[in-house]
Amino acid sequence: MRISPSPLSFSSSLPFLFKHHHKVSSHHHCSSSSAALPHKSSSTPYLSVLIHCSKDNADVLGDALLCFGATSVSIDQNDHVAQTIDEICITSIYPEDEDINLSISHAFDSIGFKEKPRYEIKAIEEEDWIKRSQESFHPVEITKGLWVVPEWSTPPDVQATNIMLNPGHAFGTGEHATTKLCLLLLHDCITGGEYILDYGTGSGILAIAALKFGAAFAVGVDVDAQAIASAYQNAALNNIGPDRIQLQLIAGENSLSSKDDQTSGFVEGENTHEIQTITDKDKYDVVIANILLNPLLDNADQIISRAKPGAVIGLSGILSEQVHQIINKYSPFLEGIEVSKLDDWACVSGRKTSSLVVPSQSQW
């Protein structure tokens, strides 16, 4: 899926949890390189940004845009707006109160763009955004007998394990290669009764899937209040209640969430670095983290410390060419390391070394 001649690493200023958001398909015409903000009105709560960039850098730029404020990113390989065969157009959506130029500048800087791609901003209607999101999300077969199905669709196979989903603004629909890789890992490793930590839960898809596969309890954490709200709604769509899932908003350095993001009714606890323990389990049988390279590297000790000895740990959100960095960082903590790949993306997994002693981390 991603084509990149060389690794483009993100700066350490990124939030420690990747802001997972929904990727949608859309088409816009770009007539100039102007970045002037359009007139905002009460009926246009979103801004659409059309960015021209090289195909080699499209996916890594899309991830950076999501990390710095975009609520969705669309990369259309067949976009007729592109002006050369090596160019592709990215459409990203932002809330109207976002400082667009600053967010995009941070995204460009984080991946080392020396020459800033040209882009255009325009306002869009909320109804258009919702319709576009729904039209782009169709049932996805992950493997035989396992489907991810949008709320507004009928499951193609009613006898299958169907994960019903309304991603809203949160990433995680089963369409992205890393989500598929993580779902397949969970499908293979869960035998029943496990306690799961979903580190960077997004739409909640991985936590929900783990419970459908037979896990006893799941905890999902994210830095984004909209993601936590989406995950709660998706848990309800799948008839999963608070007796089986806990979702927490936590803060990270430079997190794009704030205490003002908290909404009573779906966010439990304070927006702090701490993952609160509400069960008798402070260690998990499976820890899954589908985020980004730098957060995985920077928070290795915290991720490992939450896993029991012998627990399965899955690490994704990385390019195939970045696998060696993850293995170098995590090999002291893991045994039986395996790598699965799909569309130039990868998932690294292994079991926590039984003899390993990692200091407990209460602050994330």
Q: Helical percent range?
A: 10-25%
- Strand content is 25-35%
**Helix-strand sequence:** EHEEHEHEEEHEHEHEEEHHEHEE
Low-confidence stretches: 1-44, 253-273
Largest sheet at a glance? Answer: 8 strands, mixed
Going by helix content, strand content and strand pairing, the class is alpha/beta
CATH superfamily of the largest domain: Vaccinia Virus protein VP39
CATH class wording of the largest domain: Alpha Beta
Main traits of this protein?
single chain; 364 residues; alpha/beta; Alpha-Beta Plaits; Rossmann fold; 2 domains; 8-stranded mixed β-sheet; 4-stranded antiparallel β-sheet; 28% strand; globular; SAM-dependent_MTases_sf; Ribosomal_L11_MeTrfase_PrmA; ETFB lysine methyltransferase; protein-lysine N-methyltransferase activity
Quick synopsis:
It comes from Medicago truncatula. By secondary structure, the chain is an alpha/beta fold.
